[in-house]
Design a protein that fits this description.
This protein has about 300 residues and is mostly helical. The protein has 12 helices and no strands. Helix 1 (about 1-25) packs across helix 4 (about 50-65). The longest helix is centred in the middle third of the chain and has 47 residues, at about 155-200.
Length: about 300
């Protein structure tokens, strides 16, 4: 038993470190394997217990510190390590998929905020200014890449303007973007782990996605944030904008759950489902419509069983 756990710690830590190294070493493409760096720790924690999952995170951190640098280790812990420990813990406690993701993301955000606060206090640096400079550097590097690729003249000027507009928006809403990104990473890892666990006959309680529903009082926070957008004070406006993005994403998920229920109820063909998924990915207005569906599900209760009519 002990030998099997040690072997699982070795396998899990090597896999987790390798996935995160791919994120560090492969620009853009590395985002995909890097997003799943928490999966080995989650899986082996469910298989062998929470201490095995924690050991994998610690061992992966030591491996990254040896082959990379301390900064990479900190990024690993904030992006994958805390997620692996928190998500597996709530799954072990049978909190279900949705609650486990929300709790894990909340813990992860708290740890990021504490780490950022400590870094700013100890170094005396302005983190927001660093974020702004990082966005500006990325924009200038991207512009140079397009210029080397042969883009010039008015086309390059229009591209620069659009990138600067996007950069300005990112600087304003990066707290919401980090929150949504962590939620997506947690959800992706949960889906992967559940698939692997099912193949190995490891029970994992997630609950039915088509039954997902946000807490009803959350709608009031959405309404308050919407009205707060009208306030001219900058800090209030930015806080409301970030809250709206996060809540909009939550209601988008609920809208997707409603669609999943309707597809199953009416036995929609696969090609119809594929078209809807592609529209959600590439058409922003479709995403807004599905988010609105999630909001109005509070009153419409679109998934309530229909009583058969007596003829």
């Amino acid at each position: 038993m002990l030998q099997g756990r040690i072997l699982d710690v070795i396998k899990g830590s090597v896999a987790s470190a390798a996935l995160f190294l791919a994120f560090l070493l492969l620009p853009i493409v590395g985002l995909i394997p890097g997003s799943f760096a928490a999966a080995p720790g989650i899986y082996y924690a469910l298989k062998q217990g929470r201490w095995v999952g924690l050991s994998i995170v610690v061992a992966s951190s030591l491996l990254l510190a040896a082959v990379a640098d301390p900064a990479s280790t900190v990024i690993y812990l904030l992006q994958a390590g805390i997620m692996a420990v928190a998500l597996s813990e709530f799954l072990i406690r049978i909190r279900g998929g949705a609650r486990s993701i929300v709790y894990a993301v909340a813990i992860n955000l708290c740890c990021i905020a504490i780490a950022a606060g400590l870094y700013g206090y100890l170094t005396g640096s302005d983190l927001h200014a660093k974020v702004v400079r990082g966005v500006e550097t990325s924009i200038s590097q991207t512009a140079k890449m397009y210029e080397k690729a042969g883009v010039a003249g008015q086309e390059l000027k229009a591209l620069n303007e659009s990138m600067h507009q996007a950069g300005t928006l990112i600087v304003r809403v990066y707290p919401a973007l980090v929150t949504v990104a962590l939620g997506m990473i947690a959800m992706a890892n949960l889906v992967l782990v559940s698939k692997v666990a099912a193949r190995n006959r490891l029970p994992v309680y997630l609950g039915a996605f088509r039954k997902y529903k946000n807490p009803e009082p959350l709608i009031w926070l959405l309404i308050v944030a919407g009205f707060a957008m009208l306030v001219e004070q900058t800090q209030v406006h930015l806080a409301a904008l970030n809250v709206l993005i996060v809540l909009g994403t939550l209601y988008l998920v609920q809208g997707c759950a409603v669609l999943s229920h309707l597809f199953a109820s009416y036995k929609a063909p696969v090609f119809i489902r594929l078209i809807v998924v592609l529209l959600l990915i590439f058409q922003p207005f479709m995403a807004l419509a599905v988010a609105a569906l999630g909001i109005f599900d509070l009153w419409g209760d679109f998934r309530a069983p229909k009583n058969p009519q007596n003829l």
